[in-house]
Amino acid sequence: MKHLLSIADLTPDELWHILHRARELKAELRSGGNRPILAGKTMGMIFQKPSLRTRISFDMAMLQLGGQALYISPNEISLGERESVPDVARVLSRYVDVIMARVFAHAHVVQLAEYSRVPVINGLSDYTHPCQGITDVFTIWEKLGELKGVRVSYVGDANNVAVSLLYAATKLGMHFSIGHPDGYGLAPDVLARAQQFAQQSGSHITVTNDPVAAVSDAQVVYTDTWTSMGQESEKARREAVFPPFQVNKELLSHARPDAIVMHCLPAHRGQEITDEVADGPQSVLFDQAENRMHAQKGILAYLLVD
Q1: Is 268 considered catalytic here?
Q2: Is 22:181 a contact under the CB 8 Å cutoff?
Q3: Entry pTM
Q4: What is the pLDDT of residue 229?
Q5: Catalytic residue check, 264
Q6: Does 70 share its domain with 55?
Q7: Is position 111 annotated as part of the catalytic site?
Q8: Is the N or the C terminus of the chain less surrounded, counting Cβ atoms within 10 Å?
Q9: What ranges in 38-128 are assigned the alpha helix state H?
C-alpha cells in the first residue's frame, strides 16, 4: 500500500509522477473541469492543528475530482488520548478510502499508516510537511520551467517546511542553501539523509549562519514563520535572534534579479517577510497557495488511481 509520510520515502520517479499529475489536473480543471476520477471515494481528515490551506485545498481537491472529504476536529478524536492511534486507524480505515492527518507528533502519522487499511497522507507533522514540499517544487517548476540545477535558498528556522523542501530539492537535483541563526539548523540525521539524496542527483547543499551568503545568486528565496505552532513559549527568544534573516528588499537584492519569493503561509508580515516583498513583483505567495489544491490532486491520484 502506498502512503505519503515524507518526501524522503519517494523515489525521484514517484515524485515526478505526482508533479506531472498535478500539472495535468490543473490544466484539465482550467479547460473545463476535472473528470470525476475519485467518484465514490471519501477522505477522512484528522486535524490536531488548524489550517486554512490544508483543509480547503484537500476538501476542494476531493470535490473537484468527484469525491468527498470529512473534517474530523481535534475534539472528536483527541488522537492518542481518548483513543489509541492504532485503534483510530483500524476504525477510520474501515469507513474511508484515504486518511489525511495534520498532527503535532510525526510518530502519530507513522502509527496511523502502520495500522490503516487505506493510504495515509501526512498533512503536516513536527518532522516534515510533504504536501507543502511537493507544492513548492511544483510551483518552482511552473514558474522557472525547470528544476534540475535551480538554486533554492531557505532563510529562517529549519523547521518541517524546510526539511520537506530540502528533501524535494535534493531528490530532483536542485541546489539548496539554508541560512539560519546558530542553534536553529537542520537535525544532523536530516542533513545526512539529504546529503545522500544530493549525491545521487548531483545537487549541492550549503548551510550557513549568514543570510546574505545563503541567498547569494539564488533563483528562489523561501522563508517561513520564526515560531511554529507548539513553540509559543520560545516566541520572545526567537524574535530576538531572527531579524537578520528577514526577507526584505535589501536581503533580496543579493539574490538574482529575477528570483521568485516563496512562503508557505500564514505569513507574519513585518517579521520573517516584509509587505514590500510579500506583495511585490517577485512574490509568488498566492500562486503557491493555489497550487496546494493542484498538488493535493496529484497526490490523491497517485495514491488512489495510478
Answers
A1: no
A2: no
A3: 0.96
A4: 66
A5: yes
A6: yes
A7: no
A8: N
A9: 53-64, 74-77, 85-92, 106-115
pLDDT tens column, 8-29: 999 999 999 999 999 999 999 9
Sheet holding 68-72, edge to edge: 68-72, 42-47, 98-102, 120-124
Place of cell 490543473: 26
Give yes or no: 224 in active site.
yes
Catalytic residue among 3, 21, 108, 129: 129
Grid cell, residue 271, equals: 517579521
Residue 97 annotated among the catalytic residues of the structure:
no
**148 & 221 share domain:** yes
Annotate 198-224 with DSSP letters as a single string: HHHHT--EEEES-HHHHHTT-SEEEE-
Q: Are residues 213 and 192 in the same domain?
A: yes
Q: Is residue 139 part of a domain?
A: yes
129 part of the active site? yes
Residue-number span of the structural domain to which 155 is assigned? 132-288
Tens of pLDDT along 242-251? Answer: 999 999 999 9
Separation between Cα atoms, residue 297 and residue 274, nearest integer Å:
31
Residues 126, 136, 224, 296: which is the catalytic one?
A: 224
Residue 226 CA, distance from chain mean position = 16
127-157: b or e for each residue (b if 16 or more CB lie within 10 Å)? bbbbbbbbbbbbbbbbbeeebeebbbbbbbb
